Give the backbone structure.
Amino acid sequence: MDDLYREVIIEHYKNPSYRGKLDPHDISFADNNPLCGDHIEITLRLDEKGNVKEALFDGHGCAISQASADLLMESIIGKPLDEVKQLKKDDILEMLGIDLGPVRLKCALLSLKVLKAGVYGLGEASDELVE
Amino acid sequence: MSLDVNKIRKDFPILQRETRDGVRVVYLDSTATSQKPSQVINAMNDYYQKSNANIHRGVHTLAEEATSLYEGAREKIAKFINANSSREIIYTRNTTESINLVAYSWARANLKAGDLVVLTEMEHHSNLVPWHMLQAEKNIELDFIPVTENGLLDLDSYKSLLDRNPKLVSFTHMSNVLGTINPVHEMIQLAHDAGAIVLVDGAQSVPHLSVDVQKLDADFYAFSAHKMCGPTGIGILYGKSALLESMPPFLGGGDMIKEVKLRSFRANTLPHKFEAGTPAIAEAIGLGAAVDYLSNIGMENIAKHEHEITEYALERLEEIQGIKLFGPSADKKGGVAAFTLDGIHPHDVAQILDKDGIAVRAGHHCAQPLHEKFGIPATSRASFYLYSTKEEVDLLVNGIYKVKELFK
């Protein structure tokens, strides 16, 4: 538990570095967690080589969902989209440095689902994207 | 207090368990589902160990016993809500299925394009989505009684809606988020004066209040066993017999028929007409035992106990800085306290409370439109029942202070 609310998570929740919206942007996507109503929107700008130049998230939700979104945005800057497409559940858990039960896992993975749906240009952020 | 809460707690084995070493569970989630006393668990066990058989038509001893237990439970339930006859008690899976039964059978047969159905802004999804689905099929109109800032239904707006001659009015007796106890009797009278049929969602009221469907003059009244000390998987639709007689069957299959030919069938009489297939027999018997259990304690005593706990809880919670409580004052509500804490998401509140064994729910509680109305995505919700204590309220309040400390 104290693990679950490690300082780094509270810190990213209260003072996120990558909160906001990029306008204009090259990629954007938004979705909800239907179980709890958490909402995440991501906007990305790419450089001429197609790598992620800037990335921001917006929305509302619990500390786990918002902190993981902030950490995720930080981690993809400078990366080619092909590499972003490879990101999985374990990458998020590694960033957070905690283990999560099935319910809170959905909170943690919402931002990755939204990011991948945007990068793939899909209509829906499905669970299969992060399994 | 007129009920002996310590004695009652001994009936609920789960309340003695620990969620981790040395941490006793503090169950404040009875609005989602109640805990079950040994009396109910044993009744279901006994049935499986001594009397299990399929019901109706069997002539052997076990089948006769099973049938009489199953039908005996129906009698108890009829008496519990003061139905005129047990023919008016239809077994379903839960409140949701009861409401769907009315939508599929009564409303489908009686509503046409342009007909108005009046609901409220405080409904659970179970009393919204069936009507959305019917709207898509029949092009009926839906309108909603607004909820005021302090969590009550706006009855003036209700009267204006009734001027538009709705065919059906369907609303909750008690809100699962705000706890608001609606003036059901008055609302039904007004609807009847306007010529509308009334369906009441009693999922939160039957477990906590003494309900008399004849006195209320409800046309349909729906509730679930699992929120009233009974098992999951069984619920009730009460309907006035004249209405139920006039309705087409819901699901087709065994038991709901009087006669079947290759190309036709004749429907069975009430209540069996609406009960296709082998039902939840043990669960019906469990519900009967739950009704006995609650009746022995007395619904008035239960309501009084919960009122004392709720009053105390609201008083203690209001002391906390940065808390916002939703719903009316304790005199107008049941044992529900939904709240938000400044800057802390309800999921985090629930998760941190769980460390101290405190079970509260976080989310939109299947009432998303209501949360949107108040401009919030989610709340944390503590709820109370006959086994709740003031000590548990104190543990909740201490837990919330710990949450605030962590997010300081």
About this structure: Residues 3 and 297 of chain B are 7 Å apart (CA to CA). Chain B has 14 helices and 17 strands. Chain B has a mean pLDDT of 96. The domain at 5-30+298-406 of chain B is CATH 3.90.1150.10 (Aspartate Aminotransferase, domain 1).
